[in-house]
Prior knowledge:
- This protein folds into 2 domains: about 5-80, no CATH class; about 95-220.
- About 45% of the residues lie in helices and about 20% in strands.
- It is built from 7 helices and 8 strands.
- The strands form 3 sheets. It has a 4-stranded antiparallel beta sheet, with no helix packed on it.
- Helix 3 runs parallel beside helix 5, helix 3 packs antiparallel against helix 6 and helix 6 runs antiparallel to helix 7 (about 195-220).
- The model has no long low-confidence stretch (mean pLDDT about 95).
- The protein binds zinc ion.
- Zinc ion binds next to loops.
Amino acid sequence: MEYTNVRYKGVNGSESSRDIQRASVRCPFCKIQMIPKYLYSCGNKDIGVGVFCQCTNPSCEKPFLSEYILKNNMYMYSRVLPNLSLDKKEFGEIISEISPIFCDIYNQAYAAQQMNLSQICGVGYRKALEFLIKDYIMSGIDDDKKDGIKQKNLAKCIKEDISSPNIKAVAARATWIGNDETHYVRKWEDKDIKDLIGMIDLTIRWIESEVETKRLLEEMPMP
Ligand SMILES: [Zn+2]
């Protein structure tokens, strides 16, 4: 592991230096991965320090703050601290068409996650999942049946209104973890928000495969 010596400014104005991990980071503005220019560091040296960095991409050069945590006498890279330019997840044409509101809620939850609002981003992901599943079901049924789906409990919709066994299996599990994020008592102690996001991503991939397969079969019916 490589280290770099960075100037350190104490709260009383004193100056010294600290060794920090020379980690490659993703610029929060231009999103390019690079070893930034380290300007100087400050913060509680016994816990960790914030390092003022500058992006080395010539068309960006924006400054940002990253955090290094003290571990075994070394400051190890932890994360780029949040700023107003949050990452957004882009969804493919199929998902954006089935449920634009899912994409919106998902990105609000993702924004909360990037701001370390860990207690509420799970609730957001759970809500996003409900819109994704219900909008997917409603994309394949008649208008007069849609109100019934909107009113129905999500777990019941997955059980009764989804025919694909893969979507059914994954979405059901995502719902279990999602419910854990909203309720006082957790049932799945060893699963967390990362698992929930992974299961939502998997649900998306199954929905996309299902829709793509259906389109292909419609375009090329059996002779
Ligand atoms: Zn940049």
